[in-house]
Specification:
Blueprint (H helix, E strand, L loop, with lengths): L4 H9 L13 H14 L13
Length: 53
């Protein structure tokens, strides 16, 4: 996920109604990806939850 971190931040900035008026991506986004990565032995990772119907 490391190569896509900046791309993810750009995508989040497109959702202005969900962001701080400053347009900055909250620091917890990168922190969350770093914590997810550490669990799997990577610098960054995305968490997914499988939902079965």
């Amino acid at each position: 996920a490391a190569p896509f971190l900046e791309r993810k931040k750009e995508a989040l900035r497109c959702h202005r109604s969900q962001m701080d008026p400053s347009g900055d991506v909250p620091p917890w986004v990168e922190w969350w990806m770093r914590m997810s990565g550490e669990r799997g032995g990577f610098e960054y990772a995305e968490d997914f939850k499988r939902i079965q119907f």
